[in-house]
Amino acid sequence: MGLLTPEKLEQLVSTGCTKCRGKRLNFQMYVDARLPLMEGEPVGRLTWAYDGEAFVDGVYCVECAACNAELFSADACPRCHADGALERVLETDNTYDVPLSCPRCGHQEVSYFAMVPATTSYEGKRADKARTDCALLDPGFHGYKASCKQCGVFAELKDRCMLCDAPAPLRPRL
Questions:
Q1: 95 in a domain, yes or no?
Q2: Residue 172 lies inside a defined structural domain of this protein
Q3: pLDDT tens profile 101-145
């Protein structure tokens, strides 16, 4: 469970901003994304690979879109809750190997999964599509899994937190 629970999220959304009564909320979060690679180079755009529960799990800031009042904030790692780790997570480079090909079959087209900082807005009905400016070589982009169309998952980070490198065991993900 993330620091922002589904119940707390529901309360924030239904209440809105207590300062200006605005209902449109801006979210900052870490969410899962998939990046297609060919010989280790991006060959397409990031696509989101998370569901609603994973979205809630990764939220680290909620602000009012009208007056910028902070309604929720956490400086812990969004993945493992290591105290004070968020700033480091946002500023560090990816340390997870980017594969050139599948080690099982040699196929050069692989999917690379990462936790990526993103933003979205919500006002009563449905959240806007998540957005990010973070790319493979940017600070804040943190890979954790690679898979091949033919072989399936061939590498996955499980021994430490994919964001802040805290040692396992990790808390279960939603």
A1: yes
A2: no
A3: 999 999 999 999 999 999 999 998 888 899 999 999 999 999 999
Give the whole-angstrom CA distance, residue 87 versus residue 139: 11
Q: Are 144 and 162 in contact (CB under 8 A)?
A: yes
DSSP 47-111: EE---HHHHHHHEEEEEETTT--EEEE--S-TTT--TT-HHHHHHSPP-S---SS-TTT--SEEE
Tokens 């040692």 belong to residue: 167
Domain count along the chain: 1
Residue owning tokens 């801006």: 26
Residue 145 within any structural domain of the chain: yes
Measured distance between the N- and C-terminal CA atoms of the chain, rounded to whole angstroms: 6
Position 92 in a domain: yes
- What 3-state DSSP class applies to 160? strand
Domain range for 82 is: 6-156
Q: What is the mean pLDDT of the chain?
A: 92
Specify the DSSP element, H or E, that contains 6.
helix 6-15
Phi, psi at residue 161, to the nearest 5°? -70, 130
